[in-house]
Amino acid sequence: MVLVGHSGAGKTTLVEALLVATRTVQRPGRVEDGTTVSDFDEVEVRQQRSVNLTVAPVVHNNIKINLLDTPGYADFVGDLRAGLRAADAALFVVSAVEGIDGLTQLLWEECASVGMPRAVVITKIDHHRADFEETLAACQDAFGDGVAPLYLPVVTNGRVNGLIGLLSQKFYNYATGSRSEHAPGPEYEEQIAAYRGELIEGIIQESEDESLMDRYLSGEEIDTKVLIDDLEKAVARGGFYPVLAAGTGVGAVEVLELITQGFPSPLEHPMPEITSIDGRPVSDIACDPEGPLVAEVVKTTSDPYVGRISLVRVFSGTLRPDMTVHVSGHGLADRGHEDHDVDERIGAVSSPLGKQQRTAAKCVAGDIAAVAKLSRAETGDTLSDKDNPLLMTAWTMPDPLLPVAIQARSKADDDKLGQALARLVAEDPTLRLENNPETHQLVLWCMGEAHADVLLDRLSKRHGVEVEKVELRVPLRETFGGKCQAMGRNVKQTGGHGQFAICHLEVEPLPSGGGFEFVDKIVGGVVPRQFIPSVEKGVRTQMQRGVVAGYPMVDVRVTLYDGKAHSVDSSDMAFQIAGALALKEAAAKVPTLLLEPVDEVSVLVADDYVGSVMSDLSSRRGRVLGTETVGNGRTLVKAEVPELEITRYSIDLRSMSHGTGTFQRTFLRYEPLPSHLVDKVTG
């Protein structure tokens, strides 16, 4: 069961309440005090918010529930997606004070696309600014049809005393600190009737018994057991979404009852797509402890004392300590995860409760466990039988679009940096590591500033490597601004063999994307045939080095039309040097232009923010190409924008669209850099 919601909605606090209700812990921790089971990482304690996926197993009515607490901040969507992958159902946690944000609505649609069963828990109902009815209306507006309350909070003198069950028509009183059942007072009859009718109609609409609606509309009282059975089926199909309420000391038992009675078991959860290592579909896998082993690493962490720990969801078969498994990782090579297939012997199997690791004898299909000593396994990898290796299709991850250039603070840090970064990449599939060969910068591609800060904090605190951010350099290009002729003269006489090479070149610019052309127009053998490739090699080498600002030169045609050679002193190297010198002389004769990379940018944003996005793109020297309506109240804006202007666009777009906007970028071409920016870029 994964808990989903924006940062501050109360997911971690709800997990604490469920832990106490099941007597897994004696007293609830507080986020503000850093004492919760879920938020145990140093960063989480310090920032008072979740940044990791954590597991908290509880047992209610002899049924084990793995509570997956996920981060609510958009930067940590990798752990959120991992939680969705590992879960069979989702609890959307919505604060009765802050309401719903755009990211939560997008996640709801994502869950809808895969048919994941969902329910809504409205938290903080005991806050003095809480408004349950207003929040419920907002949920129904944002999440659409099928959202209806199962319980109504009872407020007396500004205090929530309990909940009224709309199906049972009972008042669950928490005023004394423990739950007791009573009949609700007559003052609630009208409110109960209105909400109960809405609930029953919603359940009946999802019922497979088509006669129920007619019977209900004719005034027949539908048996509560029938309604509960249909409720369970509707929730399991992902067609009905019950709403619950929770506050301090109120609502935890009701949430547990819904999870154990209203949600499908792992046996009913559809399997992700599974293939053989060579890509052949495998369709006969089911959630069976006796079946072939198919498990997935949903999260990887590195403990300085224990080593690498893998959080694993077992979809089929049984995972036991000390067994040998096949580890397969495919499809994330572009993010630093090389494809790999290797057999490994796992260490201990444990059931995690926050930072505690409780030894387990095994982990069966449908369960989640932590596994030690898988040195090669990375987040997203598949574990399977070594004699029958399989591969699960990787879950979708958004592209990291915020580049952060870093450098080691000292030589000692530099020596340890490579290994530490490799561990971070293995843990986090939303991180991409780039060692840019042109700018010679080490770049972390992150989901946002908070993501980058957490990564740098882990480098320092967990791996003992100090780094600092440096200004990001965007790789530019050079080209000639006109046509000219130039001579390269390399004549040196020393004792013994000297150097003799003279070449005459004509250079001219090509259209954008034209690349490089070398034209041989030598006649009469003034440059011997064996040295013509040498001139070209020298020209290419100098183009790669640049002739003005040190950036590679592109879109140039170079014609060799004359030259001189010496029967003794001419050589391959002599003509290479002459070719390079000729290109430099040409650069001194005609203007050279700096070219900047231009990207094609596609921005998906809510209709309300289209105007702001288009105006902002124009202010970044962008050319808006057009818009396209994609449904669900969103529009795709396409534009061409210089890379120099969008290095921090992921942060600005999130702010501009209140967290609902996303974008993609692909390199398009190089264009001349405006003259007023040349000194700024090269200075």
Would you give an account of this structure?
This protein has 683 residues and is α+β, with helices and mostly antiparallel strands. It has 16 helices and 37 strands. The strands form eight sheets. Strands 18-17-23-14-15-22-19-20 form an eight-stranded antiparallel sheet. It has a seven-stranded mixed sheet with strand order 2-3-1-4-5-11-6, sandwiched between helices. α1 packs across α9 and α12 (532-545) packs across α13.
Summarize the structure.
Residues 1-267 form the Tr-type G domain. By secondary structure, this protein is an alpha+beta fold.
Topology:
Layout: E1 2-4, H1 11-21, H2 42-47, E2 54-60, E3 63-69, H3 77-86, E4 90-95, H4 102-113, E5 118-123, H5 132-143, E6 147-149, E7 151-156, E8 159-165, E9 170-173, E10 180-182, H6 189-205, H7 211-217, H8 224-236, E11 241-245, H9 252-262, E12 274-276, E13 281-282, E14 294-303, E15 307-316, E16 318-319, E17 324-329, E18 340-345, E19 349-353, E20 356-359, E21 363-364, E22 368-372, E23 382-385, E24 390-392, E25 402-408, H10 411-427, E26 432-435, E27 442-446, H11 449-461, E28 467-470, E29 477-480, E30 484-492, E31 499-509, E32 516-520, H12 532-545, E33 556-564, H13 572-589, E34 592-606, H14 610-619, E35 623-631, E36 634-642, H15 649-656, E37 662-672, H16 675-682
Helix pairs in contact: 1-9, 12-13
